[in-house]
Amino acid sequence: MNFEAINSPFLVPFSGGFRIDDQPTRPPDDQADKKTNKDLLKSLVAELRELQQVLYADDRYSVLLIFQAMDAAGKDSTIRNVMTGVNPAGFQVFSFKVPSAEELDHDFLWRTSKRLPERGRIGVFNRSYYEEVLVVRVHPGILDGQKLPEVPDDLTEFWRLRYQSINEHEQHLARNGTVIMKFWLNVSRDEQKERFLSRLDEPEKHWKFSVGDVKERSHWDSYMQAYEEMLNATSRPWAPWYAIPADSKPFMRRSVAQIVVDNLKALDIAYPTVDPAEKARFDEMRTLLEKE
Ligand code: ATP
Ligand code: MG
Question: Would the pTM count as exceeding 0.85?
Answer without folding.
Answer: yes
